[in-house]
Amino acid sequence: MSTSNQKERTRFAPSPTGMPHIGSIWIALLQWLHVKSTRGELIVRIEDTDRNRFVPESEKAIFEALNWYGITHDEGPDIGGAFGPYRQSERLAIYKPYIEELKEKGTLYPCFCTAERLQEMREGQQRDKKPTGYDRYCRSLPLAEAKKKMNTEPYVLRLKMPTEGESTFADKIRGEISFSNALIDDQVLVKSDGWPTYHLAVVIDDHLMEITTVIRGEEWISSTPKHLALYKAFDWQPPVFAHVPLILGTDRSKLSKRHGDLSALSFRDRGFLPEAMINFLALLGWHPKGEKEMLTRQQISEEFRLEDVHAAGAIFNEEKLRWMNGQYIKALPPQRFIQLALPFVLQSMVAKGNREMVLPVSGKKISNGLLEKSLLAVQNRLQQLDETGAAITTYLEPKDDYAGELLIAKKSTAVNTIETLKMLEEYMQTIAESDYTEEMLEKILRQFITDKKLGVGETLWPLRVALSGEAVSPSPFSLASVVGKQETINRITLASQKLSSQHE
User: Fold this and answer.
1) pTM for the full predicted model
2) Tens digit of pLDDT for each residue in 384-408?
3) Are 163 and 211 within one domain?
4) CA distance 420 to 408
5) What positions does the domain Aminoacyl-tRNA synthetase class I anticodon-binding occupy (predicted)?
6) Which residues are known catalytic residues?
7) Same domain for 268 and 359
């Protein structure tokens, strides 16, 4: 239903058959952006007519995901509205008179084909390399015979598609699309238990809920002629259709489980920020004017136009998402970052009371001050918040089981490294506690290296390993600034003793 003076209304209509997929959230985002750009309304409708695949906890997860991504709606089963109920399973009584109307008009016909016959039919079509679809076997049954069989045999009701001509519609994204009616399947519209299938319920619901624009995935393009046939049978004006492209992996195949965990909430659980997700998802298949990629939700909604969405498949590049998420993490105010990162730290460390945390290996207690310093030290290096625990462990609990040889830089020797560590141990004691910041330590230590005519690598490498116990770690200046003067000296002393004991 769409008229020029009618308020723009679209709907997000997920099926509760599992955890919401990132592709569903992407479509919900496009719908949300469309109604924001047109000052319209977004309706959430739960399409739960497929009871065989119904997952009870799925609906809760759908709304949890919408809430986390910040995709708000104006009507739905959770908040109500003037066009409810918003679950199809609660609308069965609404559908009944429309089913009767279609029967009276001759738009439906009973089909008695068993599952076995349909399977044999499909196998034959595949064997003969013909398009698969119902062969209209029951369509030609005499009316009297059909009525008699309806009293004794289970049956479904199928849509009597026209067999001549074409079905044509103007797609908001793809332009004019046409189908030969002869190739369109006679879709099952009412199941043997009396429940409507998706194809019937969606048309009735979209009309009654005054949906003006249907935004959905391109996999529904081939179903649109069936829906248009129903709009014509009811003498209703169809909505505008906009079919968005599939999301593809970097290998240009349809995004699937083999591309990783793609449930919408898994991105939250892995430490992606909703702002980054919205920014990244909005740029799948759409781009604003100019080259800018970092966009706020408001900037996106102000520039977004549905007709600018590309018809070609959108590439989901998780490496780009990780990079973008890292930019958003960097931009967080310090206290907000700490607030968001702490739950991920708790996954690897055990809280003791309200103010203490204990490291998993040593059992060492961590003060809030040291924890906050270590968190802020790694903020600019993270691409996901679930990397936080591992990133700060280097600061809080360095490895002490490393081989002494790891301390020796490529162009140095054990003797020279031991001497360098002893020099560093003495010199670090002369640096004021107030100068134990990353910036000041780098300035002071580089000057020390110059004054003593030492090699940069031969000095900073053993210092880095002494402070972290690893070959790959944050800079020694960052490490020392976080752990503080005394702990820095302690770690250098232990490193010197480790290497000396192995080369006595």
Assistant:
1) 0.88
2) 999 998 899 888 888 888 898 999 9
3) yes
4) 10
5) 338-493
6) 257
7) no
